[in-house]
Design a protein that fits this description.
It catalyses: ATP + protein L-histidine = ADP + protein N-phospho-L-histidine. GO terms for molecular function: phosphorelay sensor kinase activity. InterPro entries: HATPase_C_sf, HATPase_dom, His_kinase_dom, HisK_dim/P_dom, HisK_dim/P_sf, Sig_transdc_His_kin-like_C. Its EC number is 2.7.13.3. By secondary structure, the chain is an alpha+beta fold. It folds into three domains: 267 residues, Up-down Bundle (Rhopdopsin 7-helix transmembrane proteins); 77 residues; 169 residues, 2-Layer Sandwich (Heat Shock Protein 90), CATH 3.30.565.10. Helices cover 57% and strands 9% of the residues. It contains 13 helices and nine strands. A five-stranded mixed beta sheet has the order 4-6-7-9-8, with helices on one face. A two-stranded antiparallel sheet has the order 1-2. The chain has a two-stranded antiparallel ribbon with strand order 3-5. A hairpin with a 2-residue loop joins strand 1 and strand 2. Helix 7 runs antiparallel to helix 8 and helix 11 packs antiparallel against helix 12.
Length: 561
Amino acid sequence: MAARRFGSRFRSRDFRPPSPGSPRCPTEGAPTAQPRSFPLPRSWRYPLHKAFQHQPGCSAPMFDLKTIVAVLFFNALMQSVVWTLMWLSLRRFAALKFVAGGLLLVAIGLFLFMQRETPPEPWRVILDNLLIKAGLLMLADALARFLGQPRYPRLAVAWFGLHAAIWSTAVILTPSDLGPRVLSAVIYTSVVMLFMCATLMRDRSQPRALRWITIGILVEYIVAISGVYLMGVTLRSGGTAETAVLTNGDGWFFLQANLFLMAYFGCMLFMVSNRLAVDLRMQNHALAQEVQRRRELEAELSASLEAEMALRKDQEQFIRMVGHEFRTPLAIIKRATEMTGLMLPNPPAGVTERLGWIDDAVSRLITLIDRFLVIDSRDGGVLQIEDIDVNAMLEDVDRHFEALGMAPRLRVEPYPGTLIYRGDPDMLLTVMINLVDNALKYSPPDSVVDVRVSSIDSAILLMVTDAGIGIPEEEKGRIGSRFYRASNTRAATGTGLGLYNSRRLLAYHNGTLTLARRQVASGGDPKGDRRNGGAGTVATVRLPLPGPNAAMDSARKVDAP
């Protein structure tokens, strides 16, 4: 919007309709005051003047300038409110708040314009104009933001600064000459409008018809404000100084501004509506792709589940077959042990003791095989809950390795006092034997394995500490998985099932097994530290108190991690 109105007096007597016989009315035959203007044939100017006057009689202008400016002010203010509300409901369109801000600046500039005194102060003329021009520039920036096009903010600030400098200089140096100000305002507004046209021409996100309609509106406004300049600038003498006076051409100018704001509002509404429709289509497309992807995943999971079920069935069959094959030699060993005891007349005490160890070990192994078969077939009871004297259980562990000739390497520290735990004695004894066996297997032959028991935080802790090769840091997360063996255990025999089975048996007791590096005292150099930089391993069994509920645990299968 051009700014020649800013050098005028909004409340001057020039807004009063000319009375008959006054020099301002050409119909009374009196000499008519000729306006000073840029040279143009009168035939170019007359029709526009005629459009803003009643014919005949020149009793009042057809367009009341005060009304047009007031309508323009309320138009800009209400649009600013509407765009603010739309931005609050559509926060993803950040450009809408800049549209609201630009219109608010225009409304503030128009309000200050309507409050001018007569004659206006130069700073008021400058301030009003710059607020409106800043609002127009923000509207152009908002359009570029909304369409995702380049904004050139530095160039925009430089252009606004140049216009502000020219306008301010013209107001201060030649306050009575509207020509430079009108020319500067027309050029500034035209350049901003052309930038908006270029933004629309580069865009491909909006429909072509909508873009070209908006470009047509912008071009029409450029032509309209250029026509106001071509009509010339009217000056009127009043008092002792020459003062700029609003003429009927200003009515045309403000009317065009009203039409532009309404057209801009309508086009932006259509653009926002189209963007919402495009976003909705994109979301629907993305949703359809997600549904298709999930269907594919569901099909893959179904296939994986079927394969897992088939593998599970094969595994159960294999376990039953292996269990059957194990029972046969174990039964032979058990029977041979019994027959040996019967056939030897008065066997030595040592032989009888060793035969008893063999019989106990075979019986315990047969019992565990039967329980694992029960677990895998999911037939029912798993745990055989009894009161376990923890110290007595550790004595059984010690006797087991004494029969293997490894008792000198085992150091058991019992609990000071009586410590009772309710659980399955065979399962817990198997866990401790597995842990001690691993500790002895992966430790130097002349090292000692410590077994300690303690009670803390409503739980029983059983710790097996060795001075062996340790566990590589990068493999800690995988140790205890089925059939997995650490990279530094290849020299020793094993299946990778010991820790896995131990965790599985502990799971029935809600217990846990953790493995950690042994902490070496300052200055200490335990044997085994030289290999792999290890200082040994501490295996800690944690059994929460009270123990498992037999009625509940016998009816459910608990899988170890």
